[in-house]
């Protein structure tokens, strides 16, 4: 039996718990992000602590200091908090199982090479003897000066030339714990050559390709066709040559890597067993393997838990640690060998949470609706007349089935009007009027359908929502600040940072400042059946309208692209401070990239630009097209703009 649609009314008793459920904050934000009693996004630095930092208060303090948005907030305490969580999880697993070895956390600096991030990780990770991992010459040279403690482990992955290997051996000779990890046999040939020249026998490791493969976007990092690592056949050849040189005790680390974001923990178990079996085999051949390095892969819950998204996990941190510890222990006990030091390189899990990008909404564009004074032209075409009648009918009391059918008829009529316009048989005014009629009809039908309870939402409902979605123009660049969203379709949590105790009655698509159709956020984390639009509050002209982009701390800082020559946004380093009223201190502010700086990165020299500009203006002055004063003013404006931010400056509009 057809169900009669009832016109819905806005629900007023909306709470922050409703917003938590809508934006799935408890799923991706735990244990740090939550919505406080003021309806603001907030941050718990320590688990179960009553003290928190209000994100809105941080933004207000930043603006009061004259700092321009967009801005990246680095909650530096979250780096230490994550290091503590990871180490505690492994320590708990070790104590529970009676595991005979230790756990060693290592930070791969490719995940976020920012000096402030690396220094914070090393400082807060001292109590856990946290190590570093590098994968290139530049990363290696950046990491070396931070090996102040001889115990600090530096795992050296990636392709290594003779210069790098020679320096690694020299650093080993002064007592530093640097281990070159071989994933090409020719690297060992270089090591041997350096060994003969220096007389120093190097400590080394090897990365191997296992048969097991991960799932999702990063599955190519693992398996037999992986870009890096020795096959088992090559490993045997390497081990035989190491043995012939009397270097068995120097072979101390065995490494593998399943992928950057392990989605399904069941894929990890087989990899751990495989690598441990290789370890056991080498130990039984009297090699001195000390470390078993499982690489990265500990996932971050970017999306709603329990979904099919490749960025949602089916496990938590403790389950991850328990699996690795239990599996290694079981294999070692079965084979009667001592358990090794376990290493993970959980860079994503360490850094993702600490960075939040705050972007202003500069303006919002909605579909035009039928207004008083609109009328159907006397000579309107048949399709326009049909569409007008359908719009009138959409205001009547109709069933769900009738509403869906009406929508299909309206789409067909609207398409016919547009086709007639393209052929010149419909005027510009008639086309514009019929656009407003169609969009008004869509809104009436959508509001009606919102009052329905569906077991599964019909595709027409989603289509209506997409048609009516507002476009929020935001002051940032997708390509600079969240490149993985554009490049690999990665989901990042995006939501308003305030008014979260009010029901959001609108839907929007966030667009950036770039002149690129891909410069927009195309999928969102929410409980809404439609993930392609963001539930939002109404845009308030003349007031602050801010959106937060969360979990950006891993990879996005270092991978950002200067599309349209948008530079790095400014960043503020936030520190928990219990001695002040708002419980935070802005420890440091790093200015955004200026126009002059970003132009310099693509070989535009500011002095040459100024000289060219002076010549251009001088010619106009000589031809008397501008006065001397006007010419000087143009030049001063040009030079002033070079020092400004690459982003939209609202102060310039005042």
What does this protein structure show overall?
With 654 residues, the protein is α/β, with parallel strands linked by helices. Among the domains are: 101-345, TIM Barrel (Alpha-Beta Barrel); 596-653. 40% of the residues lie in helices and 15% in strands. The chain contains 22 helices and 20 strands. The strands form 3 sheets. Strands 4, 13, 14, 15, 16, 17, 18, 19 and 20 form a 9-stranded mixed beta sheet that branches. It has an 8-stranded parallel β-barrel with strand order 5-6-7-8-9-10-11-12, surrounded by 7 helices. Strand 1 and strand 2 form a beta hairpin. Helix 10 runs parallel beside helix 11, helix 13 runs antiparallel to helix 14 and helix 13 (382-393) packs parallel to helix 15. The radius of gyration is 30 Å and the shape is globular. The protein starts with 15 loop residues before the first helix and ends in a 12-residue tail after the last helix.
Number of helices: 22
Work out the helicity level.
40-55%
Rg (CA only): 30 Å
Let me know the largest β-sheet.
Answer: 9 strands, mixed
Shape label:
globular
Point out poorly predicted stretches. Answer: 1-11
Which structural class matches the secondary elements? alpha/beta
CATH class annotation of the domain at 101-345? Alpha Beta
